[in-house]
Amino acid sequence: MPLRHKDSKHHKGTHSVTLYPGVARLAGICNPSVMKKARIINPRQLYVFIFLFILLLSSCAIIEAPKGGKKDINPPSAKKYIPANKSTNFSAKKIKIEFDEFIRLKDVTTQIIISPPLANAPDVKEKGKSVLVKFNDSLEKNTTYNISFGKSISDITENNILMNFNYIFSTGNSIDSMIIRGQIIDAFSLTTEKDVTVLLYNQNEDSLPYKKIPQYVAKTDDKGIFLFNNIKQGRYKIFALKDINNNYLYDLPEEKIGFLDTLVSPFVNDTNKTTIKPSYNLIFFKEETGFQHIVKSSTPSYGKIMFVFYKPAGNIKLKLLKPQTDINFNYCEINKSRDTLFYWFKNLTTDSLTIEVSDNNIILDTVDFVMPSKTQKSRTGKGSVPAAAFGHESNLSSKMLDLNKPVKINFSQPIAEFDFSKITLTEGKDSAVIPKFSFSDTLKRKFEISYQWKENQSYKLFIPPNTFKDILDFKNDTIKSDFKTKSLKDYAKIILNITVPESGFQYILQLIDEKGNVIREDIISTSGKTTYDFLPPRKYDFRLMYDSNNNSKWSTGNYLKKLQPDKVLMYGAFDTKANWDTEMDWKIK
Questions:
Q1: Exposed/middle/buried for 571, CB within 10 Å: 0-12, 13-18, 19+?
Q2: What is the spatial distance between Cα 226 and Cα 307, in angstroms, rounded to a whole number?
Q3: CA separation (Å) from 250 to 160, 183, 202, 326, 391?
Q4: With contact defined as beta carbons under 8 Å apart, do 282 and 259 qualify?
Q5: What number is the average pLDDT over the span 372-378?
Q6: Phi-psi region of 360 (alpha: psi -120 to 50; beta: other; left: phi over 0)
Q7: What is the topology classification, in CATH, of domain 294-375?
Q8: pLDDT, tens digit, for every residue of 340-368?
Q9: What residues form DSSP beta bridges with 482?
Q10: What is the CATH class of 491-587?
């Protein structure tokens, strides 16, 4: 029952309440005579007693988890198979695998592989401590099947993954026991490729990867290694595939592939060996497939259009369909990979263009452009600003310049008029110097200032307004920069003595940094010494490519033409130090 308040009398500073015997006993008032006197008490005392009572109950109800004990680091372990693992004369429609703890299944469609593949994938699900497999297709006679669970099974507590778990059975009298092992390596980076589907065919037809499901399937692990277990004696066609749509067919142009020119043979698994070295290496690459087409087109600014192509451009030609007027397409710039083209137009009098684009005399598409106006309202609403004002970017943003490099200024549009006599360069406090001015491209968009720079020296560059005018009649504002050159002791130096196996054959030699950026590229055909000066001290590597078709670039492979990608070799990452010469030998076998 609840506490009853008595409101008949009110005393200054007090409020009377009835204290029932049970509460009084909890409060420590056990003597009946005392209880009679204690029936009317100060409510503050009552609240304290209630608080202590609740605290006592809550402290008694606290249950602490046991402390200590080791963290579970072991994956689930299979304890029972129904039917037994490695059964022969298998005819069951269901499989049950019991584990020693509760398990979780994930990524079933991508991780679980049945080899040989079935036309209709079985149903695989978890139930408590068990994995249940129900077949939805009939099994071939006298065939050994391998169900590889990949990384799909883990415990539910610590997510410990059960790796390399397989269930094997045969519909015949014996289980095949031969294996094929190998590794998938990216053709250009030479890194290993994980989660690659590897296919084995017991026939030798070029069309197999396009049309037929393979006889056996495997998948690479984190080190790019694949393993076919329990396969029959024979000779097989092997094919690697980045199977984007998981259908075991090479049917998408984005899918990477790898193949061998010869058939492969399995070997007997030596159970006495704890490790088996890969016996077949497949070079993995993406074909240059598909028809040439325009991926993207846009108008980045007034008087400028851009095309991005699917493949490197051959001989691009533009034909103006609308309006019926003369427009000069001579201001064209193409990037190094030849898949992006920019065009600028001088004295453009229309805001819309319809252009027909062709490559090697094959019409690719007709594109409509809506040009932004030469001026547009600013975001603040105050007046108007040019839509394509005279812009530039420079390599002096860090205020430091390498001793072996010119000052580089790239303008937004090609330059139509210029006056180099207006430009001044000062060395130190007030010493005027006369550098060399030039454009490094035919469009006159890339401006360079060359000079025999002194180390650890200060310079001031001043380019007054109206020194340059571009083809859109925009002129430069004031361009000025205070910068300093580095010291010789800030740089590292590399001296490479390279020996190639075949003189006269063309090679592409690249120095790359730790992020894979190409620092320098040379075309070589003989053994010799190559020196690399003025390098920032960091990690570097050398990449050597066999230029099989003498096109001065790395070429990918083609499956139907039986062409492997250009072979690539890496020296191996190495460190350099400031103010230090690093000399090394590289003998190519």
A1: middle
A2: 42
A3: 34, 19, 17, 47, 47
A4: yes
A5: 62
A6: left
A7: Immunoglobulin-like (2.60.40)
A8: 999 998 877 888 899 999 999 999 999 99
A9: 460
A10: mainly beta
Inter-residue contact 281 to 182 (CB < 8 Å): yes
Give the tokens for residue 19: 């204290």
Q: Provide, for the chain, the percentages of residues in helix, strand and coil under a 3-state DSSP scheme, each rounded to the nearest 5.
A: 10, 40, 50
pLDDT, tens digit, 9 for 90 and up, residues 90-123: 999 999 999 999 999 998 988 899 999 998 889 9
- HSE, CB side, 13 Å, CA atoms: give it for residue 307: 30
Please tell me the distance from the alpha carbon of residue 498 to that of residue 483, in angstroms, as a whole number.
38
Q: Domain 392-489's class?
A: mainly beta
CA 44, 49, 54 angle in degrees (round to 5)?
125
Give 142's contacts (C-beta < 8 A, 6+ positions apart).
Answer: 170, 171, 172, 173
Q: Which of 235, 22, 214, 262 is nearest to 118 (CA)?
A: 214
Alpha-carbon span 12 to 574, nearest angstrom: 90
Residue carrying structure tokens 């092992």: 181
pLDDT at 387: 52
Structure token pair of residue 233: 């004696």
| Burial of 474 per CB tally in 10 Å (0-12, 13-18, 19+) | buried
Given the structure tokens 């001989």, which residue do they identify? 315
Asked which of 255-259, 298-302, 375-379 is least confident by mean pLDDT, the reply is 375-379
- Phi, psi (deg, nearest 5) at residue 356: -95, 130
**Does this chain's domain 294-375 share its CATH topology with 392-489?**
yes
Q: How far apart are CA 554 and CA 257, in angstroms?
A: 17
Give the Cα separation of 43 and 40 in Å (integer).
Answer: 9
- The yes/no answer on whether domain 78-284 falls in CATH 2.60.40.1220 is yes
| Every domain of the chain and the residues it spans | 1-63, 78-284, 294-375, 392-489, 491-587
